[in-house]
Amino acid sequence: MTFMDSKVALRQLEFANKELVRREAFRSYNQTSLAKDGKFHPRVLTLGGDHTITLPLLRGVAEIYGPVSVIHFDSHLDTRKPSTASGPWLPGEEIPVTHGSYFYYAHKEGLLAPNNANIHVGIRSALDSWDNYKNDWEVGFVISHAEDVEEVGWQGIVEKIREVVGDNPVYISLDIDVIDPGLAPATGTPEIGGFTTHEMRKIFKGLEGLKVVGADIVEVAPAYDSPAELTQIVAANIGWDMLALMAKTPTVV
Ligand SMILES: [Mn+2]
């Protein structure tokens, strides 16, 4: 991806990812595939970088499977409705997608499963940010807050996720800031009060059996990491768990 122009870079990613997921997988199963064309396709785990990449990645996944249920691990909603009032935009100018609004566009493009079958997990932010909540339900999400884990445990979080996504094909998008910044500090918009890596592991274990058709881990900023590469270790291990989830469950109807 070019570092000269982020719009071009996102297109490059979109085309490269589509090229990959359109292929036939090496592994197939003696059952009916979830994919619209009835074939088995590779499943991709993408590592980033700015969270905006989820939009072009979802375009690829939706082309193969149709709209998918998204499990979005993040401390922020990322469904913000772009407003011409909040930027240097000229009247009629197209507002660029950002790492806080890509789900708004994904919904508009019909990439997300209908009937609020998508869920944010680990949400928390400053108490004065309720404004961002206004638009979230209409974009198609249900919200699970980070602090819920104190009351319902990891089992309660898992139960809610499974209830929301049902039997749909699932895409997992994980912003590393869902983890507490004490454990994963190297990210652009850290928020206190996040999950521990232990809780995260438990939640992933609880998702076994979901039909995960793609995933990403984003907002890891290696330049901010400690010499011990704490954040990158967390991201790498979560990635391993995501791959295990995919490998364990065939993408069959
Ligand atoms: Mn995010």
TrEMBL record:
Cofactor annotation: Mn(2+)
Keywords, A to Z, come to: Hydrolase, Manganese, Metal-binding
Tell me which SUPFAM superfamilies the record gives. Arginase/deacetylase
Top-level taxon of origin: Eukaryota
GO BP, sorted A to Z: putrescine biosynthetic process from arginine, via agmatine
Q: Cofactor note, please?
A: Binds 2 manganese ions per subunit.
* Protein name listed in UniProt: Arginase/deacetylase
